[in-house]
Amino acid sequence: MNKVFPSAADAVRDIPDGATVLAGGFGLCGIPENSIRALRELGTRGLTVVSNNCGVDDFGLGVLLRNKQIARMVSSYVGENKEFERQYLSGELEVELTPQGTLAERLRAGGAGVVAFYTPTGAGTEISEGGLPVRYAADGSVALVSAKKETREFDGRLYVLEPAITGDYALVKAWKGDRFGNLVYRHTAMNFNPMMATAGRVTIAEVEQLVEVGDLDPDHVHTPGIYVQRIFQGTRFEKRIERKTTRAAVGGAA
To answer: How sure is the predictor about 251, in pLDDT bands with cuts at 50, 70 and 90?
Structure first.
């Protein structure tokens, strides 16, 4: 029952080339930054990564992208990463864009064992009709487009069938955890992490505080340890602000 690994490097060491990796976080909030750095050092390539976004150019999942370790990205928002744009438009990266709520539900369904579900989001658009560019060719032409999805009408409204998402590995970040893998997230850093944790075949959790079994109030546990196979205490958390905005203080001081 002791799931503690000594370091991030030990926890991610067996992730192979071509694996599907689910990564928690929203923007730069609640991202498994220690696991990502370790995977960067490991050099694993050909990854399919499922995450709301792909970090920024020099932080988060952006460091894997810059190192050409990601072959396909399934995400919702990618607007803060210039290298992502460059690789996508030059044909170096496949991208499956998914509405944010649909992405969350596809992950939740995967963790719950639901193979697919109907949603009105995207019905009647290119999301359901197909034709979205998944991969470009080097000359700028579209080499691969998204496929048409099954639709069905319920009570006079059109719905699209969306498949669940599961992964070979899930990388999540929590505030506290115990050696059994029970996790507690803090405020908005929870975001996509609970869904990712349930949808991975092997879930690797990094925590700020690793505590003894019994120290966590059972009523406060967000992810039960049954979903977590490995846990380690992170050594460094930068917790960057993705886009910092300020205003003049009262009295005119900056």
So the answer is: confident
